[in-house]
Structures are given as C-alpha cells and as structure tokens.
Amino acid sequence: MAKLSLSISGMHCATCAITIGKVLRKTPGVISAEANYATEKAQIEYNPAQTTLEKIFQVISSLGYQVNPADDAKTREIATLGQKFVVSALVALLALWGSVPGLMLTAPALLRDYLFLMLLTSITQFWVGWDFYRTTWAALKNRVANMDTLITLGTSVAYIYSAAVTLKLIPGEPYFDTAATIIALIILGKWLEARARGKTSEAIKKLVQLQPKTARVTRDGQEIDLPISEVVVGDQIRIRPGEKIPIDGQVMSGETSIDESLVTGESIPVYKHSQDLVIGGTLNTSGAIVIKATKIGSQTMLAQIIHMVEQAQASRAPIQKLVDVISGYFVPAVLIIAIVTFAGWYITTGFLPAMLNMVAVLIIACPCALGLATPTALVVGTGLAAQKGILVKDAESLEIAHKVNSIVFDKTGTLTEGKPVVTDIVGGQSVLQLAASLEKNSEHPLAAAIVDAAGKAALKLVQVTKFHSLTGQGVRGIINKTEYLLGRPDKSLPQVEKLESQGKTVVVLSTGEKVVGIIAIADTLRPTAAEAIQLLHQQKIETSLITGDNLRTAAAIAKQVGIKRYFAQVLPADKAEAIKSLRLEGKTVAMVGDGINDAPALSAAHIGIAMASGTDVAMEAAGITLVNKDLTTIATALRLSRSILRTIKTNLFWAFVYNVLLIPAAAFGLLNPMLAAAAMATSSVSVVGNSLLLKRTRLT
Amino acid sequence: MTPDKILVLFGSAGLAGLIYWFFLGKQEKSVAASTNIKITVSGGYSPATVYIPIGKPAKLTFLRTDSNSCLEELIIPDLKISKDLPLNSPVSLILTVNSASVYPWHCAMNMFHGKIVAK
User: Fold this and answer.
1) Three-state SS for A28?
2) Is the pLDDT assigned to residue A162 strictly greater than 90?
3) Prior bond of A241 cis (ω within 30°)
4) Span B30-118: which CATH code?
5) A414-445, pLDDT tens digit by residue?
6) Which residues from chain A sit within 8 angstroms of residue B66, using beta carbons?
7) Which residues on A lie below 8 Å from B16 (Cβ)?
C-alpha cells in the first residue's frame, strides 16, 4: 500500500473536491481518496501493484484539474533536509567534543571511545549521507560525476580511514569529527539553498496565482459560475466591485476603476468605460461592469506574460557560455586534482597530510555555485521586471540593455498617445469634407483623425475615384472631376510654419499647384514623456526622436519633452537606416516604438523596446516589452538590467573565487577539510542569497 | 624513492587516466532519429544524446526517478524551454526543428548534461 498527498489546482468549489474523491475511489487500485477544496490537496491510498502514479494523475487531469507534484515534493524535501541537518549537527557536535584536543578532556568517557564515535558517525555517514551514495551510484552508471560524487568520496575516505584505525587495522588517530562535520555542513548548505531557491521563482508563481478560476457568465439569460476553461470568446461576464476581472475582454456596459498594478505594474487605478479593454487578473475596484470575453486560454495577456517570463528564464546569457564549457569537465578535473594532491603530499610528506588535503580538495570544489550563478539572478531579475510591467525576451536582451547609451523614440504612439485629433482647419468645412473623403480609404493614423473630425462635424463624405496612397507622401484621388492631393506641404507657407512650430502635423489639400486648404493635427504627449527623458539623461543616456513630421514639428515636440537630437521627415521604411547611422557612431542603440508599425526599426537597433498596445504583449522584434503606458518604465528597465548583470558578474566572481582560488589552496595544504566544508556550504547559499538581494534593488 | 612512493606515483597516474577515460572518453553510439523518445532521468539522462528528424514533430518524454534535487528542472537554453520534472511523473515536450542542429540541455545546476541532435 502507498499513501500520497497531492497538491491539486483548478478546484473552484467544494463539489469539485467531492467529484475528485468519488472518481478516484472508483479507479481500480485506489483504496481511499479524499480531496479538500480549502487546502487544495488530496490524500490518496493506493496499491502500486494495481495502479501507478501516472494513472492517478491522468484521472485527475481528465476531470480538468492539475496535479502539482513538484510543490509537494519540494516541501517534503525541505522538511527532510531540515531533520537531517538537526541529526547530523548533533552528531558532529558530539564527535567534535570527543575528538578536538583540549575540548575532549571535558567530554564524558563514552564520547572519547573510538568505537562509540564510529557508531555515532555511522548514523551521519550512512543515514544522513545515504542520498549522496545513492545519487553517486546512479550517476556512475551513466558515466557521469557530480557534486555528490565529490562529497561521497571525500567523506568516505575520512570515515573508512577512521574506521580502520578504530578497528586497529592501521595505526593513527581517527577523523570521525571531520566526516561528521563535513556532512552536517553540506546538508545545512543544501537545506538553506533549497529554501532560498524556492524564493527565486516567487514572482512567476504570483503571476500564475493571479489567474482567476471562475467567471460569472450569462448563458441563455441566466448567470452561472463557470470554470475559466469553459468561457468562450463572446461570452458576457458580469464583474462586481472588489472582484477580479476573470479574462481579457471589452467593457459592454458600466464604468469602473481597475487596479492593474499586479499585471502591468501601473500604480494608479485606470478608469474604464464602454468599449475599453480590460485585462484578466486585474482587480475591479469601484463599479459593476459587464464585459465581453475577447481572448481566452493562452491568448490572454496574463498567459502571454507568464509564457514570456518563463521563456526568458530558460534562455542562456552569453556571459554563461564559459560556465557551460567548464561545467562539462569540472568534476572529473577535480577528481584528477585530488589524486595529484594525494600523490604529491604522499611522496613529499606522508600519508596523513596526503589524505586530509585530498579530502579538502574533494570537498571545496563547488560546481553548484558555478551552475547557479547566472540562472538564479536571471530568474529573480526577470520575475521582478515582470512585476514592474517590463517583459524581457531573453537573457541576451538583458545583456544588451545594460550597455545601452543611446535611445531613439518614435513619436506617434510612443512619446504621444497615438490618438491624433484635428486642431486647426484653414479654408473652411469644405476642406475637411474633401480631405475626409480622400482619407476614408487610408489606414494612416492621421487619416483616422481627419475622418473622425468630419464625422463629429456631421459632414457627408463624397465619392472618390482613382484613389492612390503614396507611402509617407499622402493620398491622391479625383472628386467631381478634379484631382486632389492631400499630403505634406511641399512649399513654405506662413500658416504652415506657424502651426508646425507649435508641434502640430500639417497636411495640405491642393489641386496641382493651388493650395485649397490646410489641416493641422496634433497628438497629445504622454503625461510621463518629459519625466522619462529626464530620468534617462540622469543615467547619462542620450535620447533622440524619429518622426515622419517635418523639421519644425519634430523640433517643437523634441523641445517639449527635452530631447536635443531629432530625425525628421523619415519615411517609415527609412527609420531602420536612421538607427543604423547611430550604430555607426559606435553607440549601443535602443529603439522605442509601438512594435507594430516600426518593427523594422526595432530590429535594426541593438535592442528594440516596444510599448504594448491593447492586450498584445508578444512582440517578435522587441527585446523588451513594456506592458504599461508609463514611459518612465524605460529608465527602470535599463537600471534593472544593469543590476541583474552586476549580480550575475558578482555571482560568477564568487563562484570562480571558491573554485579557482580555494581548490589550489586546499591542494597546497592551506585548508582544513572542515573549513573546506564550511566554505562549500556557504558557496551556493551566498550565490542564491546574492541573487535574492536583487529584490531590494532601488529602481526609481 | 621508496617502493610505496613509486607505487603511489604510478597508481595515481593510472587512476587519473582511468578517470579521464571513464568520464570523458565516452563514445556516442549512432542511433537513428526517432519521433518518440523516452528519457529516464536518474543520475543523469539516459540516453543523454537523442536524435530527432528534421522537420517532423518529435515527442520527448522525460521521466525522473531520481530524487536528486538538481535533476528536478530541465533547461534547454537554445529553445528557451524550462520544465519542472516531478518525481515519477512523465513530462513530454513536442519539438519541431527545421534545420540540422544540436541543442544541449542541462539540469538546474548545470551538472548533468544531454543534447538533442536534429539530423
């Protein structure tokens, strides 16, 4: 019979727990099964001869719930390590009391008895240290060596030598205290490390937990609570104040303020009303709303964020390459160094120093510190970034981001809200009517502004023939037998100059050489634009602006936000060329854009930073995606990338110090095996601890 | 030099050679590419090199039977894949690779290694 406690997610009511229990009990081989909704756990007793764990998992997942065996195993592992540490620490203290010269005089006679010390140390060596033997054997079968191989060898040498002395097979003094202390310290290190490593991935666990489990859906006129997996696109969902938004959607009715901070890092609640998009996992704070589901499953913003963070955490930083090469040869190399140490000391001095120094070499080598140095910093750092609304594509993007010294901002939709409106019309309403008629077929954002303005003025649009769109130049078409051109002004006019110096974009309606009218369009600057530029300047990062507008408009916008350098009249296709010219100046260039219209420019830069629009966050061309609309996040992202890289470098530095300096120190007899064990125990803990310190980074 | 020292000297040299051969002198067997591969995770990965065909989806199933905490995470950096491998619970990946290439994988602490070869 086997007993099992499983952690199960996806239960959304007490009935779910009852169902799981009932179905499991009917499964052949399962003797008893009880699921608990409150603790999200199931206690199962089964006969391993009749069924397998795999089958039990299958039954649970076929009901639509997920088994999280990893959580249970981790908790059990930490608890077992804790118990083993207590036992081994006690044994080590007793062994030291009975062995250390001076101290041993105060010890009871029993502790000074070698045979008793041997029995005591055997508990540590073979019960506490059993896992080391087991994993060493498993690895040897695959012709692989790992950290456990080194510990097994090191402690076994000390133990077997001491046992031989105790059993009077060879002369000398036993070193039971050494074997016992090494294992106690290594177990302490493993215990602390297991606890700390769990904390490194807390950020992503929090994101996963944000996902609501049910939604109140209206079906056939009735409101029912449905599991989130059963919601389909188009479902209408009612959300009351204080409830989480269950899924990405669009507001159908009602208005409210939504706290999006946990998903996007946006600190101020966002006002939402009819037609606005809402994000699943965010908190509805004030009003009751009804939304229509627009995205489900892996398409939701939260699911995309989680996926991106997981991908980034699994990626390899270029800085890691050396470690990858070393790690394949590390343990066999240490074994050979240990043998050379033994031979050298044996030939020059004698057996005892040869054995002790060999043990010290085996114990001091810390392959895990080396292996944990980069990934732990990456996991903590990318998790922290996600909480601030910064999604990093991969470790390589982080490495580039920390070197950025020049940032280019696209104007429309990046520095500005991207919702241009008509501000001035020269030539009367008929100009607007003709312009809107021409523009109704165009997809340009400025076209939408003109058509909108005509709509608001209730102007009737007229028929256009031979419509032609000239990328970056304007549009052309025939209305009432007259050919009109609506586009950039090609000659200087006083009214145009005046409007452009106010930072407005001006389009001119003309028939051949004759100007019929002028329309000025302006786009509101994002509220944080000027502050964001100032923060970047404080970090000694140059800024520039790139726009299709002419020089005067570009200069006016640049001045308003505090940017000194600008590229004006750049056609969309030429933006990438402008970025390349900056790269040729030897700068590490980041391009900030909306990720859709300016994808080529984002790709041309060393790193692309995209401002996510709507609920789409996966942008292929961007190394970093900003989930919220706050431009100051760019400065935060760059500061964070520097902190993460600094942490990775310090981690690698310490890991190399432990291994590159302390292995020779041990080989030359400068390190007692017990001190080596203490250093080894601190190595991985210090690396993980240093990565966790990232959470305290000041980012503003 | 006394005979015991000579013995230690030659014995150590032999042992060092043996260690080099045992851990680093492994010969990889040539195996045909397969679309359904089972990998046992115990004291490393068995098999540690898997061959998958180019352009076809291949299913890799990892089953961890070793409680060593290092092995509980599987990372394939070049494919940006990171998977938790719960004890005794198979975890499957479906991959489609479009060009001949090698994708190394490793455990959480980078101590155990394996690789996917697309051929």
Assistant:
1) coil
2) yes
3) no
4) 2.60.40.420
5) 898 878 889 999 888 889 999 999 888 777 77
6) 135, 138
7) 336, 339-340
